[in-house]
């Protein structure tokens, strides 16, 4: 089965073609980061308008790169949620229109299931069941993946997502957007031990997480030093290191408890924050002690992309799923509401 995938849930337009026999045939990604950086974060209306301009040219580019014509496609997958409503509608509208015009089925894909399954694109793919940490700018949750489509939520952030907290901490220091890579780069120059930030909600057995208090602690530290305009580059680096260490420790502690509670010996980490090197190193160290294998997507599949949508869509199309009329998107969409894909395994 050869499937065209379209991702447009937030600030990146991703298109890819995945073949269940030949693998990934082509992909392209356009990031809106430069546009949104001027405003310190994603502006939904601008994101939607930019997707309108990018989707069809990217579809044409990827089909040419993959040497694929419309009559060679068996279906189209698109992100139906969660995400920004306007941005989702652009991808959904284009995908459904192309599917109708080409006489092929379309299928809705859950954005977080795309991230969850991205490591399965790798040669050394994890087998079910496994624990997964999905950590990005909009979502942070721990779940147990028992089989394709059969997911149990173990814990999640009760307030900000980890990636969102990184962005806001960076903004407090005047570092700009996106904050995650900037915090990580600065942290490498930080002085260990100068500041120690709290590890939120690690003093209780729950697998839920919180990052709001960590933001407040960061702001108070900045204010104690005279405000962001008074920060030296070393102050920024030291705060970045303390913030990153606290965030990483919190996530690792929760992952450790999750594998201990479930007994699973495989852990998947996916989403934009999964590219953070400090988090990968600490998680690998802690899981190795417990005999747990850790799996990640390739770096280009950590952030939003069309490949993960094409792949997840191919699995759902193989299982017989089809998108129905009218066209709908779901800005909020619990992962646990997805249908099991046991028939596709």
Provide structural commentary:
The chain has 345 residues and is of the alpha/beta class. Helix content is 41%, strand content 19%. It is built from ten helices and ten strands. The strands form two sheets. Strands 3-2-1-4-5 form a five-stranded mixed beta sheet, with helices on both faces. Helix 9 links the parallel strand 9 and strand 10. Helix 5 crosses helix 6, helix 5 runs parallel beside helix 7 and helix 7 packs antiparallel against helix 8. The longest helix is centred in the C-terminal third of the chain and has 30 residues.
Provide a brief overview of the structure.
This protein has 345 residues and is an alpha/beta fold. The protein has 10 helices and 10 strands.
Which features does this protein show?
about 350 residues; alpha/beta; five-stranded mixed beta sheet; 10 helices; 10 strands; about 40% helix; about 20% strand
């Amino acid at each position: 089965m050869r499937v065209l995938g379209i991702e447009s849930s937030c600030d990146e337009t991703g298109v890819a073609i995945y073949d269940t026999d030949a693998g990934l045939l082509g992909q392209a990604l356009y990031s809106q980061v430069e546009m949104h950086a001027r405003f310190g974060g994603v502006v939904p209306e601008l994101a939607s308008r930019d997707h309108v301009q990018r989707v069809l040219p990217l579809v044409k580019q990827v089909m040419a790169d993959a040497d694929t014509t419309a009559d060679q496609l068996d279906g189209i997958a698109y992100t139906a949620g969660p995400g920004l409503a306007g941005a989702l509608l652009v991808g959904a509208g284009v995908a459904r229109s192309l599917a109708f015009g080409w006489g092929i089925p379309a299928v809705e894909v859950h954005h977080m299931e795309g991230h969850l399954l991205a490591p399965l694109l790798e040669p050394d793919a994890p087998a079910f069941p496994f624990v997964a940490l999905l950590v990005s700018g909009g979502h942070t949750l721990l779940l147990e993946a028992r089989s394709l489509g059969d997911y149990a939520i173990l814990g999640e952030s009760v307030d900000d997502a980890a990636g969102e907290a990184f962005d806001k901490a960076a903004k407090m220091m005047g570092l700009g957007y996106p904050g995650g890579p900037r915090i990580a780069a600065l942290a490498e120059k930080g002085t260990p031990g100068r500041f120690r930030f709290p590890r939120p909600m690690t003093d209780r057995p729950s697998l839920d997480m919180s990052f709001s208090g960590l933001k407040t602690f960061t702001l108070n530290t900045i204010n104690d030093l005279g405000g962001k305009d008074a920060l030296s580059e070393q102050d920024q680096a030291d705060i970045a290191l303390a913030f990153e260490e606290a965030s990483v420790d919190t996530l690792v502690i929760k992952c450790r408890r999750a594998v201990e509670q479930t007994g699973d010996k495989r852990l998947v980490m996916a989403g934009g924050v999964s590219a953070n090197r400090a988090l990968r190193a600490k998680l690998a160290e802690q899981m190795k002690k417990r005999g747990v294998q850790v799996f990640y997507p390739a770096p280009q599949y950590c952030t939003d992309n069309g490949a993960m949508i094409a792949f997840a869509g191919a699995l759902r199309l193989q299982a017989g799923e089809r998108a129905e009329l009218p066209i709908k998107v779901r800005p909020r969409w619990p992962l646990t509401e997805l249908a099991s894909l046991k028939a596709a395994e």
